[in-house]
Amino acid sequence: MEASLPSTRDVFTEALRAVLETWPVLQIAVDNGFGGAYSKQKAEWMVDAVQQYFQQNDDLQQYEVEDFLADLMNNEFDTVVDDGSLPQVASKICQLFKQCEQGMLLEVKSQIAQMVQRKSSGRAKATPAQLPADNEEEESEEDERVTEEPMECEEEKGGSSSTTPPQEQTAGTVPSQDAEDGWTVVRRKK
């Protein structure tokens, strides 16, 4: 018996799954339950929803796919994608769809294999932005010194007002106040 060749639709669905499973924003949303108790099922459903979107609409443009993905992320995971990855993901999906339509299934399969390999090498994780307890005391002492120095300078300069931002803000760290508010800071690797 000969093994049947995969259909264009099956290859595109597999490619979509690979793209979405390697999209850090979606994986962070799933891993942290932003979509509720059924986050993993919603991510799987997204593959079918996007595949159906492509099947029902002719000649989709990248911006239309971006809007569709942004709506799905917002509605299903309460997540606004503002890390710049949305155009990249939409572009990749459009490219894979065109390649599938042109019958370039081997090339698409090769790209899927590359994405799966990248996925297994590491996944993005969201971590709460918290300062270690020991550093908080040291930084509060440093903040006191920083705020004392401008006061002495103001007296020497005859009352001219100069303000110096706290050292923790100029160093590019997130103030501990954000962690207390319950927000999670997701940073991009450089």
Automatic annotation (TrEMBL):
Residue ranges of the region described as Disordered: 118-190
Q: Does the keyword Oxidoreductase apply?
A: no
Q: Does the keyword Cytoplasm apply?
A: no
Give GO BP annotations, semicolon-separated.
Answer: rRNA processing
From start to end residue, where is composition biased (Acidic residues)? Answer: 134-155
Q: Which UniProt keywords apply?
A: rRNA processing
Ranges of compositional bias, category Polar residues: 159-176
**Family according to the record:** Belongs to the TSR2 family.
Task performed by this protein:
May be involved in 20S pre-rRNA processing.
Q: What is this protein called?
A: Pre-rRNA-processing protein TSR2 homolog
Q: Which organism is it from?
A: Paramormyrops kingsleyae
